[in-house]
Write a structure and sequence with these properties.
By secondary structure, the chain is α/β, with parallel strands linked by helices. The chain has 13 helices and 17 strands. It has two domains: about 10-55 and about 305-405, Aspartate Aminotransferase, domain 1; about 70-300, 3-Layer(aba) Sandwich (Aspartate Aminotransferase, domain 2). It is about 40% helix and about 20% strand. The structure holds pyridoxal-5'-phosphate. Pyridoxal-5'-phosphate binds next to helix 5.
């Protein structure tokens, strides 16, 4: 066998072209820093797209991975396992839910949630009650059902006939929602804060009205907390800041800190519709994944860490606002906890990707949320010094872009 050099060029040779990765290849990480093949250092405000919730190579997670790795990786759902049961107990103790279904990704948890919502309606009210109400710009994953429920047509077009029975409405539009919900509605599905869609928070009145309309029409409220969950917004789950309790909640991304794991949480009553044989997964809830998620929950779900998220959020927002006074680049710094966005001003519309690249070239990883929003989702444990150092790099990158315009 020849020793092919592992370079970015090899990507174009051997990988399906659905991604356009950066020119460098990261090889290790620690906390909120990562290093590439040439040992260049980056401060990580991206968190692997809101995933590495406690930072790279957290010592407790490394220890858990090694310990469980030497015990039992996989057994299938023909038998249950200790980490899955412990994790399910932790998630139900910490939330509205009494029942848990484990999956491997956000899309899979949502797939289970959407199937359950339909099944529950069919079981209790009949085949006619199958309409799902979802929102424009919403994002729920990339399987066929989840792109169909998602509110970004570019992700669902070109894959043959669309799934039926899904209505998309403008987010935060109470009147449109009131007009659309009927006795045919089986579920209203939303993110409590749209992540991919541009860091747009649900109006408290909107989410409250969605809950009321669900109650009036025997529909289920499904909250997709794949991005907002696991402490990201400064509470273990985002709904805990809204006063509204969902019937189904999905969680993934930050739950495993990079190890693929996801969960769908629901009530005793709703869970009955996922009766034996109705749904399943080979890997979902395997001991290795669940042991890591359990360790993540143990780290994140403490008053100190959650208060820390809110304190870091304030520092982050103040820093971004100060940059914007010196170098006006955005209309608004928005978001909650450590899921933050800068909505570019009229001068820089459509150019979020340029800011991402400029920051990366200077040693800072950020995200975008569409073409007009720079998004940040760092580790919930990011040290203040890394926030400040990263913001200084961001300011230098913004300065370059402003001066080149
Ligand atoms: C990322 C994301 C998903 C999809 O998760 P995958 O693990 O990529 O399948 C679903 N919903 C929301 C809100 C997300 O941010």
């Amino acid at each position: 066998m020849t020793n092919t050099p592992v370079t970015r060029a090899l990507f174009d040779e051997v990988m399906v072209p659905n991604y356009a990765p950066a020119p460098v290849i990261p090889v290790r990480g620690k906390g909120s820093r990562i290093w590439d093949q040439s040992d260049n250092e980056y401060i990580d405000f991206a968190g692997g797209i809101a995933v590495t919730s406690v930072g790279h190579s957290h010592p407790k997670l490394v220890a858990t991975l090694k310990e469980q790795g030497e015990k039992l990786w996989h057994i299938s759902n023909v038998m249950t396992n200790e980490p899955a049961l412990r994790l399910a107990k932790k998630l139900t103790d910490a939330t509205f839910a009494q029942k848990v279904y484990f999956a491997n990704s956000g899309a899979e948890a949502n797939e289970a949630a959407f199937k359950l919502a339909r099944r529950f309606a069919v079981d209790h009210f009949g085949e006619e009650k199958n309409e799902i109400i979802a929102f424009e710009q919403g994002f729920h994953g990339r399987t066929l059902f989840t792109v169909s429920v998602g509110g970004q047509p570019k992700y669902s077009q070109g894959f043959g006939p669309a799934l039926e029975g899904i209505t998309h409405l403008p987010y935060n539009d109470i009147k449109a929602l009131e007009a659309a919900v009927s006795n045919k509605t089986c579920a209203i599905i939303m993110e409590p804060l749209q992540g991919e869609g541009g860091i747009i928070d649900a109006d408290p009145a909107f989410i409250k009205r969605a809950r009321e309309l669900c109650d009036q029409h025997n529909a289920l409220l499904v909250l997709d907390e794949v991005q907002t969950g696991a402490g990201r917004l400064g509470t273990l789950y985002g709904y805990q800041q809204t006063g509204v309790i969902p019937d189904i909640l999905t969680t993934a991304k930050g739950l495993g800190n990079g190890f693929p794991v996801a969960a769908m949480l629901t009530t005793d009553k709703v869970a009955t519709s996922l009766a034996i044989g109705t749904h399943g997964s080979t890997y979902g809830g395997n001991p290795l994944a669940c042991s890591i998620a359990e360790a993540v929950i143990d780290i994140v779900n403490t008053p100190e860490v959650l208060a820390g998220v809110n304190a870091k959020s304030k520092r982050f927002k103040a820093g971004l606002e100060a940059i914007n006074i010196r170098l006006p680049f955005c209309n608004e710094v928005r978001g909650k906890g450590l899921l933050l966005g800068c909505a570019l001003n009229s001068e820089y519309q459509g150019r979020a990707g340029e800011f991402l690249k400029a920051a990366q070239a200077k040693g800072l990883l950020v995200l975008v949320a569409g073409p007009n929003v720079i998004r940040m989702a760092p580790s919930l444990l990011i040290p203040e010094a890394d926030i400040d150092a990263g913001l200084a790099i961001l300011e230098a990158a913004i300065s370059d872009i402003i001066n080149a315009t």
